[in-house]
Specification:
The complex is a heterotrimer of chains A (248), B (314) and C (325). Chain A is of the alpha+beta class. Chain A contains 4 helices and 17 strands. In chain A, β6 and β7 form a beta hairpin. The chains are: A alpha+beta (248), B alpha/beta (314), C mainly alpha (325).
Amino acid sequence: MSGFRTAAIAFLMLAIVLVPAVTDESDADSGTARMSDSYILSTDYKWISGTIIRSDCFYYKASNTEAINAFEKCLNDREGTLPADDSGNLRAGEMVRIYYATKNIAVNVPITVKSDSEITDKSQFAGGIIMPYPAGFFVKAGDSFTIRITEAKDNYGEDVVCYVMENGIPYDLSKTYSGSMKTTGEFTFETDPPSGADGRFYIDLKYESTGFSEPSGSAALYAAVCAVVTIAIFCILAYSGMKPKWSK
Amino acid sequence: MDGGIAIEAENLTKTYGSFTAISDINLKVRKGEFMGLVGPNGAGKSTTLKAITGLLQPTSGTVRISGIDIKDHRHAMEHVGCVIETPEPYPGFTPAEILTYTGKMYGMDQAEIAIRSRDVLEQVKMWDWRGKTISGFSKGMRQRIVLAQALLPNPEIIILDEPTSGLDPRGMVETRKVLQNLKSKDRTLLISTHILSEVSELCGSITMIRDGRVIASGDVATLVRGSVKKGVTLLVGTVRPVSEETLSSVSGMEGVRSAEHKGDNTVVIEFDGTPDQQAEVTRAMFESGAGVLWINEKGATLESMYMEMTEEGS
Amino acid sequence: MSLRSGIGDFFNPRISGNAPPPSEKTKEPEPEREESGTWRETGYSATDEEAHRDSVYSIKSVLHQTLEVFMVQMKLFSKMKWTYILLFTALLIPIIALLAPDFIDILSTFGYSTGYSTTKIAGLLFFLPLMLGLMTSIMCGTQMPSEFKERTAYMNIPMPMSRASFFFGKYLAGFVMCLGIFMFAYSMAIATALKDYDTIFPDLITSSILLTLVGVMAYSATAYCIGCFTKKGSSIFPFALMSFIIPLIVVIICSQTDNYTLTLLPMFLGEAALGILGASMTGSAGMVILGNMDLTATWLMLLIGIAWTAGFLLLGYIRIKRREM
């Protein structure tokens, strides 16, 4: 028992020592960021023949489901049709994953399949949902921050005004804004034109800030520490469940 | 040990609101003594034992075990093994696990636990069941395990509350054997039981409780003799009829209330004298020439004393 | 004054010169312990004389006895099916995340910023506040009542140990068991998040784990104490009290007074543990005021939680100490 007790205490000490109480220092930062409150929805469709027509941005036959790849391709393939050479590569019955970007979570995605001989309307339920870019700046509870947005352009390249509402009055973020948060979360802001405008999927920012955090600790280390504590406790459980050797 | 007293209860009282369970119980059990605690149902025997072992706090009075106040429960019970209020072992455990736990609580190491467990489990005839889960045991088997658990740490003092209740006759006999063996090891035993023959067989002294009070306490033989008012009846069987002269002579001896024939070869003598006087009467019968075959004594039993005292009070 | 038994040296195999005469009471033949080195199948060597020696034992310290009670309670847990059911519940985190990744992505529709590792972890631990109440109630709510109901307390309490050892040993086991399950849940959540993220906010994770740890302490102490006052014990009542009744009362009071000081109570430690990671919602009654909680003073929540734990443990201990058996 004493050996096990020593080991158990050692595990706990290791856990306590390894868990840094260091606060993640957030220094003054100036940089760029892409922010989006769009979602990338996806749906699977069994290609039969013809052309898939969508009214929104979409991508097709993606083998990787990386959010950003899908998003970028969505933006590049705005016409919504399969190029002829690609459709020639598709075999009947092959599953195609269609991505599309939207502000709203749509349940039903109307798809129009047009072939040489017919037009067929089909619908698919939205499947996976991914968010390509964070919609705000991460702020830890109790942290104070400042931000000044020096440039903001949307995906059309047009200037966007960013602001926050304070007591019903918009505060332009081209001037330095100070704030703090009682709970951990995202600092988000409004845009003009609003984010719901047609074709608006993201804004590219240039900014100066303090107080926003980026993760820096090793996730694997923390997973290991929690696992070690768990294993230690379950070792105690297993040891306690052992029967005396003379009882066998 | 404090002056050779193993267990001492002074003015022990326990009340529950307006109800008095026990009142001014005084009890002394000497080292090496086997004492029986007897009384009718609801007399307060269990309450007394619970107060002695620290299962409940008395309203007033003190309890000392080996000179240590029971308020210091750990040290007072350090050399005590007890079975109070029909305890149950953990049903999911095996006897080996129960005894290992008990041994560790008493400060035994693994080797001592193993060897002592073998010993006590063999005594209660449960060694072969040491690795089986208790949930499958009968009530009697569980009681044996609990008794083994009490005996495991080789206690100097053993306190048992009706240890043979629920056991079959063989189990009762075997349990009594185990307790008898403790006499040779100079152990102290305080046992509460309804079975008077058990008290007679095991105990040299008794304390009788009724309505929460001690009504008699002391040596069994002395108490029995002292409390039986009607005396004893001696039945004497002879080879030849006893003469009238002999009968008349015996009738006039000290302690003899009456002596008369019962059948041809049997004499009934009503006697309420001292043991020495009884010896004289017996000698007289032997010297009568009638040829004494057997002498039977009736009436001077623990049972009759118990019945008398619990009916009329003391 | 106690003497250590003289048979402490029989770990060393000993061979007696002459085999002792067989005991009259022994029915089976005397085992050949000189050759095997063990006394009658016990696995330890001794002679008959040593085995039947009149030994006197001395009890160990209060701490030692408390740990023995702890180990016995852990043994009881190892034989309970609920232990493994609750462990499996935590195992569902990576299973669902890996087999149904879309399910996790739906969290973003609830306002979770799943672009960050900690919020993803918070999402994976969505039901932590509810589980805090449920698991601690199941493990700790019936510990003490079952001892009296099954009459095993009558085996324990007469032994030479203080009731404090009995009380705190059992509580410690319940707390450690619950802690193990929650640490397992955290390790599963962080490991699952590793699929998408390499880095986390160490201070936030540390705060979250500490809040959960104190939450486990407080919840288990409450369930344990409630159990000390009930005859049959209940898993439902402490769970309902800590996870629904009190939080809803607090929500009503806070919304009426616009004062959220009561959110410092331990009933909201689960919400705080997720809120500190960036959760905007939790699977619990307290999520309604999650956005109004002040997580800048988590140290105060921890202190209040520890004080709550101490208070309930003291209450329960007084009850057990004075309990007439």
